[in-house]
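user: can you give me the structure for this one chain? tokens are fine.
assistant: on it. calling the predictor now.
[tool input]
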Amino acid sequence: MLNPKLFNMIKGLLRLVIAVIFILSGFVKAVDLVGFSFKMEEYFSPAVFNMPFLEKFALLFSIIVVVLELLLGFMLLLKLRLKFTLSALIALCIFFGFLTFYSAYFNVVTDCGCFGDAIKFTPWESFIKDIVLLVGLIILFILYRKELKKKDDYSSTTKDSFNKFKYILLGIFSLGMIFIMAQGIMHEPLIDFRDYKIGTDLKGEKEKINKNPSEYKTFYSLKNQKTGEVLKVNQDDYIKETKYWEEGSPWKIEEGKNESVLVKEGYKSEIVKFKIEDPTGMDVTDEVINAPKAILVFSYHPKDISPELLKQVETKVKNQGANVVYGVSTDPNTFKTIKNMMMDGTAIKTIARSNPFVLILQNGKIVDKQPAKDYIK
């Protein structure tokens, strides 16, 4: 039979590890709630769950999820209301498991955002993580079954000073997390886990990407018109084997079923998506990152910008003596008095956590970035 002290130590260690994982996961998302809300928007989009009417509530859902992770994780750490806490965490894990399995199986959301921008997981890695946590929580539920039969501390009529101290700690923790979340929503994240943090050299990152680019190969889905056989053939073999494309060949490419597969991973950086074009499609990225000073005003939801705020921002950026001043959005008619440039909306959201947002570069290095409402103060 297992030594009781060793049994309690293993039980306590497992509880500690799972609690810390939930707290860390919630903390990373709490720091950048707006970024996590963008991930929630992906899940609500037509390409995934087709619930676009919920996209406007993405930030609210993000807050609820993060608050649950943080509070339940901290309650597990303190062993507060253990039966309720374990039950709620198991339900949360089942919910996360469903999302990550759906993402992985249908390959629709390539990064679940479980640990924000701090740690990237593939959908299958995220799903495995959720299953491991779920199993761990169920084991904890079984190991603590005797204690769960007792009344929770919270419902007891005689709370000792130690239990009161636990609730005080929970209150202090909650206040700290509220401050961190509010800072990220109203201004900028207190800790920036993104590739676009202040001090990042965009020019240097671009050079690293160009020296060691990722390589992809196209795999064609070919169907034999006579036998119905379907093959996946990479682009090189397709060219070499004349039987696939010569005149009279029964093999035909199935439209919409071709895949681009990563065959060599190069230097990884979100800066690879930093590409700015004018409304005609001309690439002006090099001009921006080579300018002694460039000021960029970003907007990922152009129609939601206050005209008065936009006017104030444009007036200020024009008077800063910058070599390049551009307004960058998904609409070529967003800005009225500065040049309009275009960028992919997802890439803009990676850079900007508010709408509009100001980014200042010196010789390609990020020296400042602020929400527009803070910038004009």
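assistant: here you go. Strands lie at 215-224, 230-234, 251-253, 259-264, 294-298, 324-329, 339-342, 357-362, 365-371. The two ends are 68 Å apart (CA to CA).
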